[in-house]
Amino acid sequence: MGEDTKTRVKESQEEGRQEMWRSIEIVGSVEKWASTVVVGDELNFIPPLNFAMVDNGVFRSGFPHSANFSFLQTLNLRSIIYLCPEPYPEANTEFLKSNEIRLFQFGIEGYKEPFVNIPEDTIREALNVVLDVRNHPVLIHCNRGKHRTGCVVGCLRKLQRWCLSSVFDEYQRFAAAKARVSDQRFMELFDVSSVPISFSCSNKV
Amino acid sequence: MGEDTKTRVKESQEEGRQEMWRSIEIVGSVEKWASTVVVGDELNFIPPLNFAMVDNGVFRSGFPHSANFSFLQTLNLRSIIYLCPEPYPEANTEFLKSNEIRLFQFGIEGYKEPFVNIPEDTIREALNVVLDVRNHPVLIHCNRGKHRTGCVVGCLRKLQRWCLSSVFDEYQRFAAAKARVSDQRFMELFDVSSVPISFSCSNKV
C-alpha cells in the first residue's frame, strides 16, 4: 500500500471515529469483526452452519463445532447466546474459556409443530443481551440456526422497524423447507414495546 | 440511560477505538450502519429484496425501489455497486444524488444457463471497489440479488478464506431454487491471487 493511500485511509478513519462518537448510543462497539483478506488459495475457514452477520457486532448461526473454532476466532467474539437447554459440550466450553467469551444460555426447547410454545419472556431476555453493546460482538445460535435463532433475530428486526414481510423473508431464507407458521405468528404477535430500550440503543429514528 | 451505564459504554467505546486503530488496515470504516431501534410498533422499513449484511460496511440486495429508500438511508451508504448493464432509473439516480452516494456500475449481462459467460475481469474490478474501505458503507446489487451479486460475494468469501462448501451454502441461501452450477463453478475457479490486496486490507491472517 503506497504512502498516499495510507494517508487517505487514515483520514477517512479519523472522520469515522468522529462519526462513531456521534452515534455512540446507537451503534456501540462495532469494530470487532476483522475481515481477514489474504493472498493465497488456502480456503480453510469453516463458518458454522447457517452463519450470517445480522448487524454490526451481531452474528447468527447453527451449533458451532470444533471445525468452526478457527473461523469463530476471527470474529473476536465477546459473548455467545445459546438458545438450547442441553449443556454446552466440553470442547465448546474450553473454546469459550481460552478466548474469554461469555456464555449466555437460554434453554428454549426445540418444539416441533404443532406442539409449540415459544417462551416470550425468554426471547425478551435474550434480546436484552443482544441489544447491550457491551456484549458485542455476540453470536446467537441454537442447534440449526433456523427456528429459535430465527425468532430472536426476527424480533430484533421488528425492533429495527422492518416490515413483517421482510422479517419473514429473512426467517425463511434460513429456515427454508423447515419454516414454521407458528414461529412467524410468534414474531407477528411479539410486542416490541415490551423490550425496554435502554442500554446503548437510541429511541430516535 | 443512567449515568453509570453511560460511563461504562464510553469506556468500552474507548477500548473499541484503540482496537480499531490497531486493525485499521484490516477493517477500515465500519461504524456507519446505525442500528435504528425504536419504541413503537410502526413497522415501516422495507429492505430491498434479498437484503443482507455481508461484512462490516458491505451489504447486498436485489434492485432497490423507491419503497426501499427510507430503509437504505439508515445505512448511510457511501457507494453502490450496480452489476447490470441497464441504465439506473431516474428515481434511483435522484436518491443517490440527494444522499451523496457514488454509483459504480459494472454492466454484467444476466445470462441464463447454459449460455453463461461471467466476465471474470469485471467481477475482479467490482471486488476492488468492494475491498476499498473508502467506498464503505457499500451496497452491492443486481436485479434479484442472486446470481451476479452472489458471484461477487462468493469471490469475496474466497478472499476471506471461507471453504468452498460454505461459499456455496451462502450463495444457495439467496439463489434458492434459482441456484446455478455455472455460477458455483465460476466461484470455484476464481483465482483469488488475481485480486491485488492493496487498499486497506491486510495480508495477515
Tags for this model:
homodimer, inositol-1,5-bisdiphosphate-2,3,4,6-tetrakisphosphate 5-diphosphatase activity (chains A, B), Protein-Tyrosine Phosphatase, Chain A, five-stranded mixed β-sheet, 5 strands, 205 residues, diphosphoinositol-polyphosphate diphosphatase (chains A, B), 7 helices, alpha/beta, disordered C terminus, globular, EC 3.6.1.52 (chains A, B)
Beta-strand residue percentage of chain A: 5-15%
Question: Percent helix among the residues of chain A?
Answer: 25-40%
Name the biggest interface.
A-B, 77 and 76 residues
Q: Compute the CA-based radius of gyration of chain A.
A: 18 Å
Strand order within the widest sheet of chain A?
1-2-5-3-4
Subunit arrangement of the protein: homodimer
Q: Uncertain spans of chain A, ≥5 residues at pLDDT below 50?
A: 1-34, 198-205
At the first level of CATH, the class of one domain in chain A is Alpha Beta
Distance between the termini of chain A: 39 Å
Taking all residues together, what is the mean pLDDT of chain A? 80
Order of helices and strands of chain A: HEEHEHEHEHHH
CATH homologous superfamily name of one domain in chain A? Protein tyrosine phosphatase superfamily
Q: In terms of structural class, how would the helical and strand content of chain A be classed?
A: alpha/beta
Protein name (chains A, B): diphosphoinositol-polyphosphate diphosphatase
Pfam family, one (chains A, B): Y_phosphatase2
InterPro entries (chains A, B): PFA-DSPs, Prot-tyrosine_phosphatase-like, Siw14-like, Tyr_Pase_AS, TYR_PHOSPHATASE_DUAL_dom
GO molecular function, one term (chains A, B): inositol-1,5-bisdiphosphate-2,3,4,6-tetrakisphosphate 5-diphosphatase activity
